[in-house]
């Protein structure tokens, strides 16, 4: 098992904080920690203001790990993220991380599949540069409510990812259509590893396919968090292990889990 770096608190300068779509913003910070210790699938707990209002930090999954900076894509949906949009270039953010267990690309994998919806695609996109470094081909299905909600398409294109965008707006994102596409790609390209984030409906679909076809499959779960360190037990998720239900802490035991173990209700 990979040894992960211990989380630390850093005061990171904001390099960019700007809208990329109607509901999504891109945050870039100059991170003074060891960037090689940050892994795809991990997250940082962000204090959105220097005062304790809002009280709780906000978990942001890593989108891009650059040579001297970190990038995050976040959806503006509540008081905390609205406050974060008001932070300016040159401000310093209090970051706690990296936190959680990351994605794993099996050594034998040559082709992997990403199935993401909404901001979940930002979490999955962090896998793409890592796959490229290993010579692994990536195939991605990007789902969203509307065309202008599709995320990470530029990054996927830059790395030559074979990508299919599906949306509710166009009527192309229903489960049966996505299932047919996944089955075709799995058979055609010999995909043996798959990853998903952003939709329980799509995760349940991929779980079924992974069980049928014997795929290595992981899911990054999205849950409301309080401490981010596994102390408060506010972000538990049900897993089925050895024939019984267990509850795991998403912040500490995840956020990445074996997809075949996760119970979707």
Automatic annotation (TrEMBL):
- Locate the FAD-binding FR-type domain: which residues? 7-105
Q: How is the cofactor bound?
A: Binds 1 FAD per subunit.
Q: Specify which residues bind [2Fe-2S] cluster according to the UniProt entry for this protein.
A: 227, 232, 235, 251
Names of the cofactor(s): FAD; [2Fe-2S] cluster
UniProt entry tagged with the keyword rRNA-binding: no
Q: CDD domains given for it?
A: DHOD_e_trans (cd06218)
Share an example GO biological-process annotation for this protein. Answer: pyrimidine nucleotide biosynthetic process
Which Gene Ontology molecular-function terms are recorded? 2 iron, 2 sulfur cluster binding; flavin adenine dinucleotide binding; metal ion binding; oxidoreductase activity
Positions binding FAD in this chain are: 58-61, 73-75, 80-81
| Gene3D superfamilies (UniProt xref) | Dihydroorotate dehydrogenase, electron transfer subunit, Nucleotide-binding domain of ferredoxin-NADP reductase (FNR) module, Translation factors
Q: Does the keyword Transcription regulation apply?
A: no
Keywords linked to the UniProt accession: 2Fe-2S, Electron transport, FAD, Flavoprotein, Iron, Iron-sulfur, Metal-binding, Transport
Taking the record's annotation, the residue ranges forming a coiled coil are none
Q: Which family does it belong to?
A: Belongs to the PyrK family.
Question: Know the name of this protein?
Answer: Dihydroorotate dehydrogenase electron transfer subunit
């Amino acid at each position: 098992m990979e040894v992960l770096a211990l989380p630390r608190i850093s005061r990171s300068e904001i390099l960019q904080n700007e809208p990329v779509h109607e509901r999504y913003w891109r945050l870039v910070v100059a991170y003074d920690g060891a960037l090689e210790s940050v892994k795809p699938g991990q997250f940082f707990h962000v204090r959105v203001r220097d005062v304790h209002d809002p009280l709780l930090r906000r978990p942001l999954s890593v989108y891009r790990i650059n040579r001297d900076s970190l990038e995050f894509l976040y959806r503006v949906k509540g008081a905390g993220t609205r406050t974060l949009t008001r932070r300016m270039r040159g401000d310093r953010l209090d970051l706690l991380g990296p936190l959680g267990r990351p994605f794993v690309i099996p050594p034998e994998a040559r082709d992997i599949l990403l199935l993401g919806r909404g901001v979940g695609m930002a979490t999955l996109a962090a896998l793409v540069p890592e796959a490229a470094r290993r010579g692994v081909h990536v195939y991605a299905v990007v789902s969203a409510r509307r065309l202008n909600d599709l995320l990470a398409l530029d990054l996927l294109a830059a790395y030559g990812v074979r990508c299919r965008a599906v949306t509710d707006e166009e009527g192309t994102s229903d489960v049966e259509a996505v299932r047919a596409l996944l089955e075709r790609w799995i058979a055609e390209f010999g995909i043996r590893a798959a990853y998903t984030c952003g939709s329980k409906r799509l995760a349940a679909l991929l779980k079924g396919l992974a069980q049928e076809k014997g795929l290595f499959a992981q899911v990054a779960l999205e849950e409301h968090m309080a401490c981010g360190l596994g102390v408060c037990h506010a972000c538990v998720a049900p897993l089925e292990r050895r024939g019984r239900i267990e509850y795991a802490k998403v912040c500490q035991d995840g956020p990445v889990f074996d997809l075949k173990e996760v119970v979707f209700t």
